[in-house]
Amino acid sequence: MRAWSLAFLVIFASTASLSGCGYSQLTREDEDVKAAWSQVINQYQRRAELIPNLVRTVKGYANQEQQVLIGVAEARAKTASSIQLTPELLNNPEAFAKFQAAQGQLGSSVKSLIAVAEAYPDLKSNENFRDLQAQLEGTENRIAVARQRYIDAVRNFNTTARAFPTNLTAKMFDFQVKPNFTVPNEQAIAAPPTVDFGDPPAPPAPSGAGPGPK
Question: From 3.40.50.150, 1.20.1440.20, 1.20.210.10, 1.10.10.10, which CATH number describes the 18-190 domain?
Answer without folding.
Answer: 1.20.1440.20
